Amino acid sequence: MYQKLACVFIGLILSLSFEATAKVRGEAMVTTVTSEILSESREILIHLPNNYSRYKDTTYPVLYLLDGQRNFSHTVGTLDLLNQSGMAQEMIIVGITNTERTRDFTPTYDESYNEWGISGGADNFLDFLEKELKPYVTSSYRTNNYAILAGHSLSALFTVYALHERPDMFQAYFAFSPSLWWHEEVIFPEAKEFFKSDSDLNKYLYVNMGSEDGEMLSAFENYSELLNNSTRKGFTFDTELDTSESHNTTALAGMSLALQKHLNSLRPSGTVIQASLPAVEQYYEELSEKYGFHAKPEYKAVNHAGYAALNKKDFESAISIFKKNVTSFPNKSDAYDSLADGYEAKGDLALALEARKRALAMSYEENVENGAYKTRLHNLEKKIADGVKK
């Protein structure tokens, strides 16, 4: 009896201990924005990056997520998973909940779809985003002037329409299964003129489609053809047709791909990374000018430059580059782990040991997987001990 109670008590203590130390990465909150343009109040879902409260002087891109109540949770989880692998940027996510979905996301009024609700309010909703919501987010959070708009189905139609109508509002656009068929493909005449222009269009667009058929698929194919024939300077895009996904899952599956491909569109090439750190820094200066925001050299690009130097056995340069990443990302455990690699390769085992211990300690604060850090620290300690014995 006492043994059984003891087991229950120990289990309870372990459970409470786990709950006390485990924490969800980042911070989520709900706020309300009262809109004069829409004549209503709108619930807004906000998620701040894992490191938002730790990097007080860091600014972030903003992902404006339409159909917020449907897409917020999976987007937050997907982005955080990719962040931990260096496969997407840390961003502030702003999920915009719906009130009159058909009204807000359609560019024209079509009475044949009145059973869905009133239509044709896209321009008004663009005004809300441009004149009310974006200024609110900019004044309330540390943003860096880089913004992404993402939508699904009708809200993806709106996303594509926003690109054509007000391209300066956002730098990137994610459109999952867009309803480009709306009102007999009413947006296509403007789209054709838009992509014929010879002016620079420094934007990124991701569009996907799942197992849909009929007018959904044919409109997607027509739009893909427009994109493939576009010669606008600075414009990059990706299209995906994945028939293993249904209309209801293209936003879920597509968000991961869009975030990864978007980051790849901003990253320097392998040639630039192999060249030198100054070449990487120059690349980001040009990127800042191109997109109109302060593009801080991305952690992974600098890290790769460090390992490029390390592979050439240029230990001093590699260590210098890794130190720069530690200075730029002082709370990132991987930065210390990479610095340890540099020291260990050079043979400075004492400094390597200090950096490995720092990486492990930081991993608990950063709330990331740290099994590899523990193993590397153990192996280094054994290596030092074996050296002392000899």
Folded structure, characterized:
The structure is a single chain. The protein has two domains: 21-266, Rossmann fold, CATH 3.40.50.1820; 271-389, Tetratricopeptide repeat domain (Serine Threonine Protein Phosphatase 5, Tetratricopeptide repeat), CATH 1.25.40.10. The protein is built from 16 helices and eight strands. The chain is elongated and about 85 Å long. Helices cover 56% and strands 14% of the residues. It has an eight-stranded mixed β-sheet, with helices on both faces. It has helices spanning 2-21, 68-84, 101-105, 122-140, 154-165, 182-185, 188-196, 214-229, 250-266, 270-275, 277-291, 299-311, 315-328, 333-346, 349-366, 371-389; strands at residues 27-35, 40-48, 60-65, 92-96, 143-152, 172-176, 204-209, 236-241. By secondary structure, it is α/β, with parallel strands linked by helices.
List keywords for this structure.
390 residues, 8-stranded mixed sheet, 8 strands, 2 domains, Serine Threonine Protein Phosphatase 5, Tetratricopeptide repeat, 16 helices, alpha/beta, Rossmann fold, disordered N terminus
State the major sheet: 8 strands, mixed
**Roughly what is the average pLDDT, rounded to an integer?**
92
Major sheet: order of its strands?
Answer: 1-2-4-3-5-6-7-8
Rounded radius of gyration (Å): 25 Å
The oligomeric state of the chains shown is: single chain
CATH superfamily membership of the largest domain: Alpha/Beta hydrolase fold, catalytic domain
Tell me the helix content.
55-70%
